[in-house]
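Lecture 7, part 2: worked example. A protein chain together with threonylcarbamoyladenylate.
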Amino acid sequence: MYYNWKDRTNTEELKIVCNLIRNGELVIFPTETVYGIGANALDTLAVGKIFLAKGRPSDNPLIVHLADKRKIDEVADDITEVEQELIDNFMPGPFTLILKKKPIIPDVVTAGLDTVAVRIPNNIIAKGIITFSGVPIAAPSANISGRPSGTSIEDIRKELEGKVSAIVDGGKTEIGIESTVVKVVDEVPVILRPGKVTPEEIKSVCGKVSIDSKVFQRTRSTDVIYSPGMKYRHYAPETKCKILYCENELDQIFYLKKFIKEYQGNLVIIGFNEHKEKVVLDEDRFISIGRIDNLNDYAKNIYSALRKADKIRPRIIIIEGVKKEGLGFAIMNRLLKTCDYDIFER
Ligand code: TXA
Ligand code: MG
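Predicted complex, written out as structure tokens:
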């Protein structure tokens, strides 16, 4: 069933949706980052359905979503001082913390690890569904494994309808890229996946922060992997993609034009509004992502833009890169994976 809660949550329908969750069914719902495919995290069979629906490798654990901080103790154990500081400062929000797991969380959720990823979404629909279901909800991003995450129902309806019992439409998600994932190792918060909560913010709270070396690198078989998700290709359209990033804007325009020439116009550019008029290209082949100085819009629009570009079936998608600073850090992490680390830099 499809439920439209773009303008407001319908309480009768909320009851139906929460019953589905309690009965072991899958529900697609919005969070402030991206849409999730949720199931009762305490129900092994229900969680198994998520892996099937997404085609997700079973060694990639899921995030457990809770309604509020008081619930953390029910799923996690031995919370340290640094972990508590992170909880106090960044939850609820686009932030996921890896904690020592309690036995109540089944192995299928955590892929057999002794830790559990916990997040408290800051979105009224997500909160309502978690609260009234009365159970923690395991939910990965709503997309077929490997594809860009879903930030609007229009983008994912075709690929996931039929695999879930309900779809709750809350409109375009606010942030557009997934939560920051952090694990505290030897009292230092380590960023396993960058997101809206930046390294700078974490450092300002805890006095220290470190970035897992795999955030900007392909993983190798010999690497110690803290987060299994790092091993897999992600956020990728079917078309070949390349990042273009020049520090100097004039160079950037020059190379945009060069790529247009090289591909004789058979490409799609995902780029800044300001650059659209500077190049000669069919209207629908330049997808504007936002203004140069607005990384929030970049994050919000990127997954939809990738899906839109893919539909045109060009020979290549050229994506304008950004400085790895603030939110740009997370954006570049996603883009590098999207492009399988293919970047043209000057
Ligand atoms: O914003 C988000 O985080 C969205 C919304 C729906 O909450 N969820 C999301 O889930 O992005 P997913 O499954 O697409 O990504 C979860 C990431 C994966 O990279 C996974 O490997 C990692 O979190 N993860 C989950 N449990 C973990 C654990 N116990 N230890 C280390 N990494 C873990
Ligand atoms: Mg995902």
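Residues 31, 33-34, 36, 60-63, 96, 98, 110, 113, 115-117, 119, 139-141, 178-179, 181, 192-193, 226-229 surround threonylcarbamoyladenylate (ligand 1) (CB under 6 Å). The domain at 241-345 is CATH 3.40.50.11030 (Rossmann fold). Keep this in mind for problem set question 3.
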